[in-house]
């Protein structure tokens, strides 16, 4: 029997849940100068920094030996020009660390009343995410806000946390504050936390940790799927997906959604397939953008590979290496989608040669 990672699961769910409450409350209070543009031109907000500080500081108390690969780093906040931003982040992170919630408080993990951290401790917590990754041993990966552009638009985003052991994801949590719990039943409200543990299945909970529901991907005909794809055309090729859809006689329009919420939807039977093919050369997919979704889909009975049919390798560093794309789908349709992707690639190659 595989390990159940019971304490890790409790800590990770508590941390993601607090980060979801933090980010959804910060959204309503965001002001213009609280968003920075990073070197790669992507946005980062006080919400991203505060959520990484919060999650990392909880992990560091609960599992002090475990390294962390986090998306953000605190270098801009350590500059004199970053003081205002830093003060705001420290106050948001401390508010989230110390608030009293009915479930999930645990002084040993640095959560609950009296768990304030200093400015220096919280900046160090963010920078604990600077680990370069490894193929051996335990490490966590954090995407404090995945889909920052979706977050800023008030649409989908996700707080993502995963535990990787010896290159393989063993535990994944995805918090989606803006995702309906049950799209068929609006009375169930908005907000879900997806959780998966290797060998122990996938489930979804509400943001108050109620209604745990096991997830599995239903079997389907390839022609009945709709592709779950990125909103940003620069992040994955929409036109390539259209060609794959036509090869499979898919008639449903693709569903565009920011963040790993796409993997959550797939795991609970919506859409049928996640397809993310590179738009050009050079960009390497980051492990924090896929780790939690990878285990969630696999534990819901699906398959996740690149376009060569290889599993994603979470042990080669902060990225997944050369970008061969990501195909995630139920186990009956995955082989068909993989074959269609390879056919569309061959067509593109032939066209480029002509
Ligand atoms: N060029 C390029 N190609 C592929 N991926 C990229 C690229 N640039 C950025 N990113 C990463 O995309 C993450 C968001 O992915 P999504 O699937 O949510 O895309 S989208 O927002 O719906 O367009 C986004 O995650 P966050 O930064 O956490 O929002 C980035 O890590
Ligand atoms: Mg980002
Ligand atoms: Mg991301
Ligand atoms: Mg992010």
UniProtKB/TrEMBL annotation:
InterPro entries per record: DPNP (IPR006239), Inositol_monoP_metal-BS (IPR020583), Inositol_monoP_superfamily (IPR051090), Inositol_monophosphatase-like (IPR000760), Inositol_monophosphatase_CS (IPR020550)
Gene Ontology BP term (one): phosphatidylinositol phosphate biosynthetic process
PROSITE patterns: IMP_1, IMP_2
Reactions that this protein is recorded to catalyse: adenosine 2',5'-bisphosphate + H2O = AMP + phosphate; 3'-phosphoadenylyl sulfate + H2O = adenosine 5'-phosphosulfate + phosphate; adenosine 3',5'-bisphosphate + H2O = AMP + phosphate
Keyword set includes DNA-binding: no
EC id: 3.1.3.7
A Pfam family recorded for this sequence: Inositol_P
Molecular function per GO: 3'(2'),5'-bisphosphate nucleotidase activity; metal ion binding
Record-linked CDD domains: PAP_phosphatase
Family membership: Belongs to the inositol monophosphatase superfamily.
Protein name: 3'(2'),5'-bisphosphate nucleotidase
């Amino acid at each position: 029997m595989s390990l159940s990672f019971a304490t890790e699961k409790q800590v990770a769910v508590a941390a993601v849940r607090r980060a979801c409450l933090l980010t959804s409350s910060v959204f309503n209070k965001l002001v213009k100068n609280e968003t920075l543009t990073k070197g790669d031109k992507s946005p980062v907000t006080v919400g991203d920094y505060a959520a990484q500080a919060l999650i990392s500081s909880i992990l560091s108390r609960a599992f002090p030996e475990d390294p962390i690969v986090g998306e953000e780093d605190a270098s801009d906040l350590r500059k004199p020009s970053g003081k205002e931003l830093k003060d705001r982040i420290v106050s948001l992170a401390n508010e989230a660390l110390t608030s009293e919630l009915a479930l999930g408080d645990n002084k040993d993990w640095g959560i609950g009343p009296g768990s304030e951290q200093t400015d220096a401790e919280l900046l160090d917590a963010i920078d604990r995410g600077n680990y370069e990754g490894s193929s051996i041993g335990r490490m966590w990966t954090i995407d404090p806000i995945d889909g920052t552009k979706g977050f800023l638009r008030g649409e989908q985003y996700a707080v993502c946390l995963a535990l990787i052991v010896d290159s393989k994801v063993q535990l994944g949590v995805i918090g989606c504050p803006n995702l309906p719990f049950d799209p068929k039943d609006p009375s169930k409200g908005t907000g879900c936390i997806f959780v998966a543990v290797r060998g122990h299945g996938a489930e979804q909970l509400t943001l108050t940790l109620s209604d745990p529901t096991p997830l599995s991907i239903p079997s389907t005909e390839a022609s009945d799927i709709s592709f779950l794809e990125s909103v940003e055309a620069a992040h994955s090729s929409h036109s390539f997906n259209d060609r794959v859809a036509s090869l499979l006689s898919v008639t449903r329009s693709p569903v565009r959604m920011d963040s790993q919420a796409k993997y959550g939807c797939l795991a609970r039977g919506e859409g049928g397939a996640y397809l993310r093919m590179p738009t050009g050369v050079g960009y390497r997919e980051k492990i924090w953008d896929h780790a939690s979704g990878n285990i969630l889909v696999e534990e819901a009975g699906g398959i996740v590979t690149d376009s060569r049919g290889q599993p994603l390798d979470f042990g080669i560093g902060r990225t997944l290496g050369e970008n061969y794309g990501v195909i995630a789908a139920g186990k009956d349709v995955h082989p068909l989608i993989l074959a269609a992707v390879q056919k569309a690639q061959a067509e593109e190659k032939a066209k480029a040669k002509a």
